[in-house]
Specification:
Order of helices and strands: HHHH
Shape: globular
Mean pLDDT: 97
Low-confidence stretches: none
Strand content: under 5%
Number of strands: 0
Distance between the termini: 41 Å
Number of helices: 4
Radius of gyration: 12 Å
Largest sheet: none
Length: 94
């Protein structure tokens, strides 16, 4: 569909999608593979999806700032984010 085509080209296009589409894990996964920062526009439920957020931080460690608090405590996820972008450590839970 149109929104899927848009996020395949520009993940941040997710910002303009209807709220209901921001709950779609397949759409979210596609957007985050293209641009990890697209996780910012996902529903709170998807921001707590470890697999999806892992893909986001592998693409862009900065995306850790948008992960759920629970995932900011996930050592492997935080390490992946920091390896991709060292400053991502700033967004890890204490």
């Amino acid at each position: 569909d149109l929104v899927m085509a848009a996020v395949q080209q520009f993940g941040m296009a997710l910002a303009y999608a209807l709220e209901a589409l921001k709950e779609d894990s397949e759409l979210g996964m596609t957007a985050c593979q293209q641009n990890g920062s697209a996780v910012e526009y996902l529903s709170n439920e998807l921001k707590d999806d470890r697999d999806l957020v892992m893909i986001a931080v592998q693409q862009n460690g900065w995306a850790l700032q948008y992960a759920s608090e629970q995932l900011k405590n996930d050592r492997d996820l935080v390490m992946t984010a920091v390896q991709q972008f060292g400053m991502a450590l700033e967004f890890a839970s204490e």
